[in-house]
Amino acid sequence: MDQEFTFLDEKQRERLSRLMAFHLRHDATIERTPEGFVSVQKLAEVIRRKINWVKPQHIREVAIFDTKGRYELDRQLIRARYGHSIEVKLDYPEADVDVLYYAVAPEAVKQATTEGLKPLARRMVHLSPTVERALEAGKVRTENPVVLAVDVRRAREMGIKILKASDRVYLAPEIPPQCVRILESQGAN
User: Fold this and answer.
1) What are the DSSP E strand ranges found in the chain?
2) Cβ-based burial of 104 (10 A; exposed 0-12, middle 13-18, buried ≥19)
3) 2: number of CA atoms within 13 Å, CB side?
4) What are the boundaries of each domain within the chain?
């Protein structure tokens, strides 16, 4: 059986990871636990409709070697740690930091500071632990993101529960405008 195992190349890993993320985060037709876990075997079967060579071991390989911490394995189950547009019950620990960061396009700064941060296509607002991570996330959507600082302590006092999904991503249902400020020094540019 070991003879059948082959490591994925970068292109294969990227393509498979994108499909895994889509199905685990957005595909409401896949049977899952309330916490969002899906059978690795079932996920492989679903993805095999698009990539015929996919086996459960490939799903596990992508999850194990993913540098962004997008996936969580639990024996024969897998889930996306963040990015969901479907309802899942996340059981992560609460954030134990005082400040997190969020990047927006320059034209969205005023709205973010007056209305707060709200999830757009996702169910939760995704916050970053560092300015650099926020800039990295922001550059996916805009060339010159502006980094906002989120006062986690104040949000907590206001009853907002912020969860630590991974070392790279924290999640909140929303962030009130009183907890958002423009970061004076934008750090890494």
Assistant:
1) 38-39, 71-74, 77-80, 99-104, 125-127, 146-151, 163-164, 170-172, 180-182
2) buried
3) 0
4) 2-80, 99-182
Pairing of strands 125-127, 170-172: antiparallel
C-alpha 147/C-alpha 18 separation (Å) is: 26
pTM: 0.82
pLDDT tens digit sequence for 36-86? 999 999 999 999 999 999 999 999 999 999 988 899 999 999 999 999 999
Which are the contacts of 158, defined by CB distance < 8 A and separation ≥ 6? 176, 178, 179
Other beta carbons within 10 angstroms of residue 139's beta carbon come to: 12
Written as one letter, the residue type at 79 is R
Place of tokens 């639990």: 74
What is the architecture, at CATH level 2, of domain 2-80? Orthogonal Bundle (1.10)
Amino acid at 169: V
- Cβ atoms of 147 and 186 within 8 Å: the answer is yes
CATH architecture of 99-182: Alpha-Beta Barrel (3.20)
Q: Which two tokens stand for residue 86?
A: 């479907």
- Helices then strands, each counted (H, E), the chain: 6, 9
Residue 171: helix, strand or coil by DSSP?
strand
